[in-house]
Amino acid sequence: MAGSSPSRTGAEEPTASRRSPWRWYLDVPLIWKLAVALVLGVVAGLVVGPPIAVVQPLGDIFLRLLTMLVMPLILLTLIAGVASVSPKTLGRIGGKAFVYYLVTTAFAMTIGIGVALLVSPGAGLSLPGDAEVDEETAPPLAEVLTGIVPDNIFSALAEGEVLAVMFFALAVGVALAFMQDSTDDHLAGLAMHLRRFVDGGVELVFLVIRGVLQYSPIGVFALIAVVVGETGADALLPLASLTGVVYGSIILQIVVYALILLLFRAPVGRFFREAKEPMLTGFVTRSSSGTLPVTIRAAERLGVRKGVYSFTLPLGATINMDGTAIYVGAATVFIANVTGTQLTLTQLATVAAVGVLASVGTAGVPGAGLIMLTMAVTAAGLPMAPVALVAGIDAILDMGRTLCNVAGDLTGTRIIAKSEPGMLVDPDAPPEVGEVDEADEAGTGQSGAG
């Protein structure tokens, strides 16, 4: 026996030391992999220049993988979340979310305009004679409202109509909630089977998400490298003041989020530790909707229950545009400076009102930031030509504003969960991803014992 022990140990040690590269890669925290990919992408873009566009397909694959998951994620998590709460509670959550999104967007617009007025970006910049841009138009309000109700749910899923899919999921979730509470044993039994099917679908999607996130550093590298390679450091210099204003305003807006979290007695340090992953993902993908899978995982790690995040996060990705509001306010002041126009208080108030209200109707439209900017510029009576200058660095600005949008969505979700009884697990010891409901249902007695 004495001799058998060393041989066993000797057999195990080489196995442990020969850890495969894939296992080593999986063991590295995702945030570090994303950070390294970000730095390498910037370096590669600056060194190689425009030819780095050859890696664009790698970034496109990452975006397509995320987009592939958005619709099933919204549909399944929203049905499961709505079915887990009473319709009365759901109404309160929706009202709080809508008020929060409007108020923070108004704050963001004010910050963007205020900082831009102090710094005066664009002052002294000459307007190119041939700089023209086609004016974008937002869809009419009546079209936005009618589009919320899908005439074909399969078409809505295929075309990525977020509000229409959310409407369908809400209707199904409410119906399932009523079935679960039915006094008819047959209906209640069917509801139980349907709920298990939906919950299983949610877990399946989360499993796929975990696999996609292992590819994300490659996609991040490609996306950043292409943007930097095509833009170049020199191209940013004429518009550096506007870029600085937008990013400085975004930092101030994130400080506002921290103050809101403190007001609701939420642990700010823990929040941003969990939020940094979706914020960085939003930064490189430039898509709040595409970042939803990562944002939902962060909400679960923060202890938010499905009944809140399954509604507030998809809604926020659709209508909450704090970063875009900052961009619109700052860019409008920039355009006024380029054209030598002194904005009046009435014009500034008009820009703020248009930016806040337009965020609801244009968020789900491709090029939403440009649409909101052209609407604000038109409302202020400014010429459209300088918009072409802003469009030249739109990708750089879009990264920051998407990061801000994602942080705002997650902040609202966290404080709304705090305000709703039973919708927030102990933030100091949240359950693992996908296990929030089980921990809540299984163990008030256990948590009390601890």
What are the segments in which pLDDT stays under 50 over at least 5 consecutive residues?
Answer: 1-16, 128-136, 430-450
Name the CATH architecture: Orthogonal Bundle
**Considering the protein shown, what is the CATH homologous superfamily?**
Sodium:dicarboxylate symporter
> What structural category characterises the helix and strand content?
mainly alpha
Give the ordered list of helices and strands. HHHHHHHHHHHHHHHHHHHHH
Got a strand count?
A: 0
CATH class: Mainly Alpha
Give the total of domains. Answer: 1
Distance between the termini: 43 Å
If helices are DSSP runs of H or I spanning 4 or more residues, what is the number of helices? 21
* Broad shape: globular
Largest sheet: none
Helix content class: over 70%
Strand content: under 5%
What is the fold-level CATH name, i.e. the topology? Answer: Proton glutamate symport protein
- Mean pLDDT across the residues is 78
Radius of gyration over all CA atoms, rounded: 24 Å
Membrane topology: Multi-pass membrane protein
Keywords: Cell membrane, Membrane, Symport, Transmembrane, Transmembrane helix, Transport
Protein name: Na+/H+-dicarboxylate symporter
GO molecular function, one term: symporter activity
Description:
Pfam families: SDF. GO terms for molecular function: symporter activity. Keywords: Cell membrane, Membrane, Symport, Transmembrane, Transmembrane helix, Transport. Its main location: membrane. It is a multi-pass membrane protein. The chain is built from 21 helices and no strands. The two termini are about 45 Å apart. With about 450 residues, it is mainly alpha-helical. It has helices spanning about 5-15, 20-25, 30-50, 55-85, 85-120, 140-145, 155-160, 160-180, 185-230, 235, 240-265, 270-285, 290-300, 305-320, 320-340, 345-360, 370-380, 385-390, 395-420, 435-440, 445-450. Helix 4 runs antiparallel to helix 9 (about 185-230) and helix 14 packs antiparallel against helix 19. It has one domain: Orthogonal Bundle (Proton glutamate symport protein), CATH 1.10.3860.10. Residues about 1-15, about 130-135 and about 430-450 have low confidence and may be disordered. The longest helix is centred in the middle third of the chain and has 47 residues, at about 185-230. The radius of gyration is 24 Å and the shape is globular.
